[in-house]
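TODO from last week: model DEAD/DEAH box helicase domain-containing protein.
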Amino acid sequence: MSVVNYRCPKCSSPHSVGVDKIFDGRLIFRCAKCKICSIVPAPGSIDEAYLDFLDRFESGSGVADASDLKLLMEQERIIRPAKEIDALMASANAAGDPLLEDLLRSQQDYVVDFQAIEEPPPEFGSNIEDLPVDEAIISALKAKKIERLYSFQEQAIRKILQGNDVVITAPTASGKTEAFCIPVLQKIAEELPRFGSLRTGEGSSKVSAIFIYPTKALSRDQLPKIKELAEPLGAMVAVLDGDTPEKERTSIMDSPPDVIVTNFDVLHYHMMHRTKFSRMIRTARFLVVDEAHVYTGVFGANVHHIIARLERLAGRKLQVIAASATLPNADEFCQTLFGRKMHIVQGRGRRGRINLAIIFPSLRSYRSLALDLLRQTTKRKHKTIAFASSHLGSELMAFYGSRQGVSIRVHRAGLPPALRKEIEQQFKSGQLAAISATPTLELGIDIGDVDAIISNIVPVNRLTQRIGRAARRGQQGYAFLALGNDPISQYYKMHPADYLADHEYAYTDPANPFVQEYQVLAMACDRPLSMAESKPVWNVLQKLVSKGVVKTVRERFVPDLKQAMKMLNEYSIRGIGSRVDIKFNKKIIGDRSLPQALEELHPNAIYFLAGRRYKVQELHFEPNSQPYAELAVIPSDYPYYTKALTDEWPSILEVYEKKVVFGIEVAYCALKIQKRVLGYANIEIGQEVVQGKKVVLDKPLEFEFVTKGSVFRAPRPVDILQKVDDEQYVEMSGFHASEHVIIEGSAMITGGASQDLGGISLGSSGLIFVYDGSIGGNGASRALFDRLDKAFGRALRILSECPCKSESGCPRCTYSYRCGNNNEYLHKLAAIEVMNRVVEGERTEIGDRIAGDRALV
């Protein structure tokens, strides 16, 4: 309790009334002497709330004795009643566990759910001697002390040996690698000249299989497992990607291995540049794609076309084998991704009991809850991974954790590979108690024993994958889903069953015109297209011809290589785009992708890197040169970090599709976003609130990028406008709040992709744009476009159910931490009317005035 300068209305004691903040915008007033208390909505300032407290006391309603405060908080669902927690723990046979007792009974949080996850062990299949594979494989398995495979592994092996295209879904570390390696290597070995005789380890000098992993780190992590099975057969395996040294690369080209381990970025680049590597892989007969769930959205659409291009060059259909830890819609998704019907093999993994708690922070912030979870797990010697969805989130967790004595480091993309490997080894050896990670560690990199998982809010199947990291050795594990101070967390607190039902269904659209244009151009660069080949992509080719990047020569479509490469080299198949290098003492120590880099690396920005803070001395962002930011150290007691102030302007380049949702016309488009970083605000460490004046940059940073997104016109909040003086301000603020809650409330509907979305509400016009925040797009806005009816309904419930009374709303309904003007100009009641009118079917049309070079309001 923080005592402030308020007098108690009952005992008249000065300075005795303290105020506790509830993060839904309400306040708890308590007198330290006579013990009266009340829970009061905060319509504006604390002073206004105090006047409400006085009114309640005088009227004799809404004020109770402090002994009743706990009951009052239970009734208001601020904390969970002790009897309900007793029942939850008893049903899970967890009563008396010191860690769980401390965390679930803190009386600072609402325990949404608690359960023990105890899965039956996987079913075993035949003895390994009964498998139709070479003795060398059986010997290699015995050397690993494997006498029997799991039944799902045996099922996958037999289906793959029969020549089927197969997707294997099973938890992390359940044995998927053996399930696809054994049959593929068996089929390769049957063609080796030395098969059945003494093996020399010289390979066959042709690539038979391509193994694809989404990251270079995972390729190298899995390489020893593949070699263990391959080398006894005489099959050679090698990794070729951007980190492969030149000498090793030359050796691979001169003596191709039987199995090449790489990624889709490498395939895309080498095929369109017609390199020696692209010729080398044309002999492949097998394509193995691990972590298939990664290839969603635009990335997946590109992957679909890259596989088709590879098969075109190979002159045959490849046998495709995919594996994934989480794919609720594996059948549908993989058929779309790979362009063929796949046989599904499902398996379970072996792990110990997991105690899972879903916790909503009522009387503290999300970060305070997450840090408490981290302290409690590590002080009991539980090795812990704390997951965040953003770079900044992972850096802040490590920063605060280190300040509180936790041995923790950051593991995320953008850090040098050697540093990430060092962190993995330190955690594996026990030198580190915890890792603060982005989804980089959701993938199957081996980091040894994990006892506890702390996760921010993600779709339930992603949470299941993260939980799969814990208790792999059969020990008891702990998993905590820490809900946040945000609209979707508030929604799930009120509707927990919806969280368990909101699975992340993998989504990709190979027919995306934006992707098709680049991939057809790349296909022409691989090898000119004949007239017969051109029929399925005729319209795309005509567009490329009109742009002058493709021409017809002797009834073939041939690229203008100079113009084509200029266009293709600016395109990323992952929808990421260009990057800004981060330098310290003239050495590159990291990087960040555009356009996000401008918000984090503007002059004087405080940038977190590997758990430390730096100040950006200078940002070099000139045309036709690699951009980079120079960092300088700051004192450890420097009290702030920064948040960029931005504005954005959208232009519609092309409309792909239109539909009507309720009565609202919505268009899915190619967009150009003109983004400016105007300045920044300081946020005080530990307070998470803006402090002091905003700082305006001498010269705004400007950047344009092409992406994809949706646009619609929201209905006017006519009723509330009749009751206010400043109609334009209220209308504009209502549209702005509506844009926020549609995006924030769509998190899980879009598979947790809301963090990848940007939004723009154009003043009082009612036009709202929701777009992919990455160059070229990432698929999130398409996922929202497809489910917009559900997002509209959920946005209305979030606004209506939040108990805050502030005009602008609060962090749990209208605020967005991504907002470029710090959540100014929001109006909750106007947004409620807007969303009511949407779901009631009021009709709106986008209109013609937004077509052309710029959107006009």
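Done. The two ends are 48 Å apart (CA to CA).
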